[in-house]
Design goal:
Layout: H1 24-36, H2 46-60, H3 62-70, H4 76-93, H5 97-106, H6 112-115, E1 128-140, E2 144-150, E3 155-160, E4 181-193, E5 198-212, E6 215-217
Parallel strand pairs: 3-5
Antiparallel strand pairs: 1-2, 1-4, 2-3, 4-5, 5-6
Helix pairs in contact: 1-2, 1-4, 3-4
Length: 218
C-alpha cells in the first residue's frame, strides 16, 4: 500500500553543488523514460519496484535533483521528501504509464484493462467531470489550489498542475478568481501522499471558464 518515496531523500546528499537544469517536468520525463525501459509490469515484489524506481532516479535525474536540493534552506531530507511528492504528482499528471502501473500494484489495485477484457488494451484514462460553482478559496502553495463550491453545497479542491486553456487571463493573479462564478472541468487521480503515507484522490484542473450572466467568458 505504499511507495517509499521517502527513500529518495538520502540520495540528495550526493552532488549537492550540481547546477544543471532543475525543471520539474524535465526531471519527471527523464525518470519516466527510464522506467519505460525497465518493464515495470513484469516486476512482482515491492522491493524490486522500489529498487528500479530509485535506480532510474540515480541514472536519469540525480543532477537535476541535486541542484534543487542545493537551493534548499539546509534541511535536505525535508526538501527531498517534498520534492519526491511533487515528482510523484507530476508523473501521474503527465500520464507516465510505468509509474501508474507501479502505483496500482503497490496499492493492491488492478489496471482497468484487466477488469474489462472486452476492451482494447490501452492506457487507463481518468474520466472528466464538470460543474458550475463559486470560487471560495485560492491558495498558492507548492501548486495552485482552487476551491469551488457547487450549487449543491459540496466543495471541490482543484489543483492547477499543467497549462489550462483560457488560464492566461487569470493565472498571473489567481487570487482574483475568488468570488467568481466559474465552470470547471477536472480529472481525478489516485496518488501516494508521503506525508500521510496513504493513497488519496486529487482533482487536476483541466478547464476553468469565468461565467457572466450564466455564459462562460472565453
Amino acid at each position: 500500500m505504499k511507495i517509499c518515496l521517502l527513500f529518495i531523500a538520502p540520495l540528495f546528499f550526493l552532488n549537492a553543488n550540481a547546477q544543471k537544469d532543475t525543471s520539474l517536468r524535465k526531471t519527471s520525463i527523464a525518470i519516466c523514460n527510464c522506467l519505460e525501459k525497465k518493464n515495470m509490469g513484469a516486476l512482482k515484489s515491492e522491493a524490486d519496484m522500489q529498487a528500479v524506481f530509485l535506480k532510474c532516479i540515480t541514472d536519469s535525474a540525480m543532477d537535476a535533483f541535486s541542484a534543487i536540493i542545493a537551493e534548499s534552506d539546509g534541511d535536505t531530507y525535508k526538501a527531498g521528501k517534498d520534492l519526491g511528492e511533487k515528482i510523484a504528482l507530476d508523473l501521474l499528471a503527465m500520464g507516465c504509464k510505468p509509474f501508474v502501473t507501479m502505483s496500482l500494484k503497490l496499492a493492491g489495485g488492478k489496471e482497468e484493462e484487466t477488469a474489462t477484457a472486452s476492451k482494447p488494451k490501452k492506457e487507463t484514462e481518468a474520466a472528466s467531470k464538470s460543474l458550475v460553482g463559486d470560487v471560495i478559496k485560492v491558495e498558492e502553495k507548492d501548486f495552485l489550489y482552487i476551491t469551488v463550491k457547487a450549487e449543491s453545497g459540496r466543495e471541490h479542491v482543484l489543483i492547477y498542475l499543467q497549462y489550462v486553456p483560457s488560464s492566461d487571463s487569470w493565472i498571473k493573479e489567481p487570487l482574483r478568481l475568488k468570488g467568481k462564478k466559474v465552470k470547471v472541468t477536472w480529472k481525478e487521480y489516485e496518488v501516494y501522499q508521503t506525508k500521510i503515507k496513504e493513497f488519496s484522490n486529487i482533482k487536476e484542473l483541466k478547464e476553468l471558464d469565468i461565467m457572466v450572466k450564466d455564459a462562460p467568458v472565453k
